[in-house]
Amino acid sequence: LGPDGRLYAVAGYVDVDLRPIPGNPEATIRKARILRRAALGPMRPSGADFRVAAAAYSMEMEAKREIAEEEENLEQETLTTFGRYIDIYA
User: Fold this and answer.
1) pLDDT tens digit string along 37-48?
2) How many Cα atoms within 13 Å fall on the side-chain side of residue 70?
């Protein structure tokens, strides 16, 4: 009961979906950042809040690794297909 006589929620939990978005690492990064901000939003985050934030951070880092791997594979494909140098004649 608050000072104004109304009931307020002061404890509880919320189920959180910490699964990456399949096939979309960019969306996974956005989701992870939102989850991390929400988990660390309270003035005094709980242990569970810190665990969610850590899991979201791990999810974000994994998605970034996926993107880097995709970029590296694309670069290798380009080098294999076109060679290291491309001569351009005008």
Assistant:
1) 999 998 899 999
2) 10
